[in-house]
Specification:
By secondary structure, the chain is α+β, with helices and mostly antiparallel strands. The chain contains 5 helices and 3 strands; from the N terminus they run H-E-E-H-E-H-H-H.
Length: about 100
């Protein structure tokens, strides 16, 4: 994709029909201007792999929000402070079960 050389990173396909390993940047380097082209790469590859990430839960949420709304897995327990998501709004019965 065009953004690979423009932004100074490369993506190596994982060898399967989806997924790419991002090389040349660290998770801490991802800010709003860099998140935009990475979001396009995510749409293309479906899964992006960044090796050796080391960051707090709060930083993870901040980073995730740069890629869009955070969707909470409807069958997970213990939300660790994750925001309410559209699944909760669309299926209040399932959300109520998670709160028990």
């Amino acid at each position: 994709m065009d953004t690979i050389t423009q932004w100074g990173y490369e993506i190596l396909p994982t060898g399967s029909h989806m997924g790419g390993e991002v090389r040349g940047i660290q998770v801490r380097d991802i800010d709003a201007p860099l998140a935009a082209p990475l979001k396009n790469e995510l749409l293309h590859y479906k899964v992006l792999i960044l090796r050796n990430p080391c960051f707090s839960h709060d930083y993870y949420l901040t980073l995730a929000r740069q890629f869009g709304e955070i969707a909470k897995y409807p069958f997970a327990s213990g939300d660790r402070g994750l925001p309410r998501d559209r699944a909760d709004r669309q299926n209040p019965d399932a959300a109520a079960k998670l709160q028990r």
